[in-house]
Amino acid sequence: MGTVFSFDVRGGEPEAVQTALEEAIAHLHRVDEVFSPYRKDSQISRLARGEVSAQDCDPEVAEVLALGAQAERVSDGWFSTRFAGRIDPTGIVKGWAVERAARRLAAAGASGVSVNGGGDVQMYGMPEPHRPWRVGVSDPLRPGGLAAVVSAAGAEELAVATSGTAERGAHIVDPRTGRSAVTDLVAVTVVGPSLTWADAWATAAFAMGSRAGLAWLESLPDVEALLITAGDEVRCTGGLAARLG
Length: 245
Prior knowledge:
The chain has helices spanning 14-35, 43-48, 59-74, 90-107, 195-208, 210-219; strands at residues 5-10, 82-83, 86-87, 112-117, 120-125, 134-138, 146-151, 157-164, 173-174, 179-180, 185-192, 224-229, 234-236.
């Protein structure tokens, strides 16, 4: 998927956890083979060219496309699984894949799981008794600095996803124009239980801009967010403070 993945897994029966880790890694490689729009032989590329139908693909293709359609409905079209008129679910598939990998490890008995895919993180449990997972949010305007630290204290599962221009430039597309989203934002970080949705909501909110994006994120259940503008203004949802520390 063109990025780096890392795993931090604590506790559980070593053999069962090792097996689950190997399965999770194999799953991520398989996701790349099936969903990469840069591979001409991937199922998603063949589907985009009309060579196969969704029914001819792995069941996960229909699952991801359904999730993308749901994200599009919830965001009123600000999230899309199409690019330049072609199917392209890359905006949702990474978060979905990381969440599935983390869930697999938790189900194998690990007491603490943190899976990081390109800076987006899905966490379960705790790394140690009475010590929660903590995730630093990079400051897009000050390389090497942190804008905030998110704590998973009190949450059995928590995800943190950031969309912005600091790392990859203007790669987020405005679905309504088909061109790069031009807003007052440089980064949107979304915190919630599911990385599938946190990643999608961060992307959609970035395309909306700070005012509309913040209002929309406030309307979503179990979601908190931090938005940073190009003018170095920091805006956040009302409940975010409870997740910082």
